[in-house]
Write a structure and sequence with these properties.
With 205 residues, this protein is of the alpha+beta class. It has a single domain, classed as Pnp Oxidase, Chain A (Roll), CATH 2.30.110.10. The strands form 2 sheets. It has a 5-stranded antiparallel beta sheet with strand order 2-1-5-6-9. The longest helix has 16 residues. The two termini are 29 Å apart.
Length: 205
């Protein structure tokens, strides 16, 4: 990620919040065959406040393609992001930008046992289903869902290090920040309520 110290996101609690709110992740491995990328949902595990551990699964044969367990992988978490038009800046400012909240997480995955994997799949489904009116659960037909689960491989990633950025116009004066946030919340072509929410959370207001 570009070296931008003034946008650095170093607070572990904030990175955990980013993962919780944006669980669709990109998994990248460097293998003998080249770089391999896949996309899967991840879930945070409970643990010490200063540590990040995530669990997920891949569909077979992605575990082979990635060589999971044999080396370090990169997991990319992409939060809200969007275009910022220079028309939202004072007259004479002509250069646009792209605001975003992003985290890169590195670690060596641990392959889960079939029982652990099923527990993770069950918890993952429950996490998303709790928001719908009539939630469903893998427990409703455990024989069927355990059979389907055999087509997946579970993993745990204890994050060894991370590099995260919250680029939210911190380099702009307060009145410009307010204008950008208002435009993101309006009904224009680059409206982005989620990104505006991140800006208000950071800057206040």
């Amino acid at each position: 990620m570009r070296h931008t110290p003034h946008f650095l996101l170093a607070d572990v609690a904030e990175v955990k919040r980013l993962i919780r709110k944006n669980p669709w992740a990109t998994l990248v491995s460097h293998t003998a065959a080249g770089n391999v990328a896949s996309h899967y949902p991840v879930m945070l595990e409970d643990g010490p406040a200063d540590e990040i551990s995530i669990v997920s699964h891949v569909g077979r044969p992605d575990e082979v393609a990635h060589g999971l367990g044999s080396g370090e992988v990169l997991v990319i978490i992409q939060g809200p992001h969007g275009y910022v038009s220079p028309s939202w800046y004072p007259d004479g400012d002509l250069v646009p930008t792209w605001n975003h909240v992003t985290a890169h997480l590195w670690g060596t995955p641990e392959i889960l046992s079939p029982e652990e994997n099923y527990a993770v799949l069950e918890a993952l489904v429950d996490q998303f289903e709790q928001r719908v009116p009539r939630p469903r659960s893998l427990r409703m037909d455990e024989e069927l869902t355990r059979r389907i689960a055999r087509g997946t491989v579970g993993l745990r990633l204890r994050v060894a290090r991370f590099d995260a950025r919250a680029k939210l116009s911190q380099n702009k004066p307060a009145d410009v920040v307010a204008r950008i946030t208002d435009e993101l919340e309006a009904d224009g072509p680059y409206a982005n309520a989620a990104l505006a929410g991140e800006m208000r959370r950071l800057h206040g207001g």
